[in-house]
Amino acid sequence: MSDPTILILASLAEGDKHGYAIMEDVRAFAGVRLGPGTLYGAITRLEERGWIRAVKSEARRQPYRITAEGSLELKRQLALFGQVVRIGNRRLKEA
Amino acid sequence: MRTLLRWAARLYPEAWRERYGAEFDALLTDISPSFGDVCDVLGGALRARLTSPANLSLETAAGSSMTVRLPVVVSLTAHAVLLVFVLAVAVHYVTPAPPRVFGTPAPPPTPDPPPTVTDARVFPSALTLYSSLPLAPTKSEVLPLYVANGVGINFLTLPDIGALYRRGDAEWRVWPGQALESFIVRRVLPEYPRNATSAGAVSVFVEYLIREDGSVKVLRTAGPALFTNSARWAIERWRYRPLEFENRPCQVVSRIEVRFDGAFVRHETP
Fold first, then answer.
1. What ipTM score was computed for the predicted complex, to two decimals?
2. pTM score above 0.80
3. What confidence tier does B55 reach under pLDDT thresholds 50, 70, 90?
4. For residues B211 and B243, what is the distance between their CA atoms, to the nearest angstrom?
5. Which of B23, B26, B43 sits opposite A37 (nearest CB)?
6. What distances in angstroms separate CA B257 from CA B101, B136, B140, B146, B175, one per listed residue?
7. Contacting residues of A for B47, CB less than 8 Å apart
8. Cα-Cα-Cα-Cα dihedral of B14, B18, B23, B28, to 10°?
9. Distance in angstroms (rounded) separating the CA atoms of residues B26 and B28
C-alpha cells in the first residue's frame, strides 16, 4: 500500500488538492510521508496516464483533480487490495 | 538545505521544469526540508531524465522517424567516450615486457667515476700526513694573537684543509682552528705558570683532537713542560659543537700556538 500513485488517487478522491496538501493528507491517513521527488514523480505519471488533471488556478500551488479514469483505476486497485486483505485475514484465522 | 533542494530541482529536464517547476518550487517552500528530501529530489530528477518525454526524433535513411530519448543518447555517448578513454589509458599504462635475449649475458654496469674535487686545497689528491710533520709554526701567515693576562692564542694556519692525520689505526682530518671558531662553545685560557722564571715570551704548540661529541683531547705538545702542561690543562677543557662531515659525525685535528709573555702578567696579590 506504499505505491504513491494509489495514495495520491485516494487523497484526490476526497477533493481537489495541491502538492503540499496531498503530502499532508497522505501522511494523515496512511502514515506515509511522500518526499517531494516521489510526489511529483507520481503526479507526473498520473497526469501522463490521464488519471488526474491540473485544475485551473492563478496561485503557484497547482491543484489536481482525479479524473473518471483515475477513479476507475482507484476502484480497481482498492478491489484488488480488498481481495488481498480478505484472503490474508481468512488465512490468518485458519492458521 | 532549501537551497540545496532548489539546486537539486534544477537537475530535472527542462521540459519537466517548464511544466512543474513553479508548483514544485512552491512545494519546496512549504515543506520543512531534510537531507532525505534532497536525496528524494535527486532520485526524482534522475528518474525524470531517464523517462523524460522530451524526445529526439532521428530520421532514418529510409525516411521513417525513429524516436530516441535524448538522455539515453547522451548517456550512451558519455559511456562510450569514458570506455575509450579507460581503454586508452590501460593500453599505455601496461609496460611491455622486455624481449628475452638468448646468448651471452650483458656485462655488469660500470661504476660511476669518483666525484671530481675542484678546489685543490680541499682534500688534495696527495694527502699530507700531518702526523709526520714537526709541530712548529707555519711561516705563511701571521695571525692575530689573542692575549689575556700574558697568554695568547694563535691558531696555526693549515694549508691543506681536510688533510689526513693518522695515529695507529685511527685516521682523522686536519682542520684549521679559524674554521672551527664558530663551533666553539667553551674556551678556557691557559694561566701563566706561577713558578715560571722566564720574563720573556715563550711559545708552545699544541695539537689536539676534537672528538665526535665536541670534547677535546690533546695529541701532541711542543715546548717547555711547564708551559705545555698549563696549555694542555686549559685546552682539554674546551668544548665544541659536534662536527659533521658529509652529514656524518666526524673528528678533526687542529693545531694551536699558545704564547706566554711574562711582561704582561698581572700577578694577583693575596
1. 0.82
2. no
3. very low
4. 8
5. B43
6. 68, 9, 15, 10, 15
7. 37, 41
8. 20
9. 5
